[in-house]
Q: What sequence folds into this?
C-alpha cells in the first residue's frame, strides 16, 4: 500500500482488479467454446455431390486442403492452451496481486493470438476463393456445387475470429491489471 493511499482506495483498487480478473476468466471460457466449435465444425466438414457414380465420386473434405488442416490444428492448440490457462485465471481471481504469472499469461496469450490469427486468416483466404474463385488464375468457385461444405467452412470462421477478438481484449486487460499494481 502506498503511503498516500488509504484503506478505502486500496480496497477499491482490489475490487476493480478482481472484477477485471473475473472478466478475464469469463472471456477465456467463451474463447474456448469459439475455438472448439470452429475446430469441430471444420474438422467434420465433408460433402459428396448427389450425381456421383461408383466410378467417379465428387467429394469435398476439409483435409483435402492443407490450409484447412492448419486451421483445425491452430484452433485445437489455442483451445487446449485456453483450457490449461483456466486454473491460472482462477488463481488470478483469488490472488489479484500475482504479477509474474499474469505477465506469463500475457506473453503466452500473444503467441496464441498470432497462431490463431494465422490459421483463421489463411482459412478465410481459401474460403473467399471457394466462394468467388479467381478468373485470372483460372480457379473456379466451388460453392455453387458444394453449398453445405461452403456454409460449414464459412461458419467455422466465425468462432475462430471471435476468439481472436477475445484474445485481443485479454492482452490489454491483463496489462491494465499489471499497471494498476505499480
A:
Amino acid at each position: 500500500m502506498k503511503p498516500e493511499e488509504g484503506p478505502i482506495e486500496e480496497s477499491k483498487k482490489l475490487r476493480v482488479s478482481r472484477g477485471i480478473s473475473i472478466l478475464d476468466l469469463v472471456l477465456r471460457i467463451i474463447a474456448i467454446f469459439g475455438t472448439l466449435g470452429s475446430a469441430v465444425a471444420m474438422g467434420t466438414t465433408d460433402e459428396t455431390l448427389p450425381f456421383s457414380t461408383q466410378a467417379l465420386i465428387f467429394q469435398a473434405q476439409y483435409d483435402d486442403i492443407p490450409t484447412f488442416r492448419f486451421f483445425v490444428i491452430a484452433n485445437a492448440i489455442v483451445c487446449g492452451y485456453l483450457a490449461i490457462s483456466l486454473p491460472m485465471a482462477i488463481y488470478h481471481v483469488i490472488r489479484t496481486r500475482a504479477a509474474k504469472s499474469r505477465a506469463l499469461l500475457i506473453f503466452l496469450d500473444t503467441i496464441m493470438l498470432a497462431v490463431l490469427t494465422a490459421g483463421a486468416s489463411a482459412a478465410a483466404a481459401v474460403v473467399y476463393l471457394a466462394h468467388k474463385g479467381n478468373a485470372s488464375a483460372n480457379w473456379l468457385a466451388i460453392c455453387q456445387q458444394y453449398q453445405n461444405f461452403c456454409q460449414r467452412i464459412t461458419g467455422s470462421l466465425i468462432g475462430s475470429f471471435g476468439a481472436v477478438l477475445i484474445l485481443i481484449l485479454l492482452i490489454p486487460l491483463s496489462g491494465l491489471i499489471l499497471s494498476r499494481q505499480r
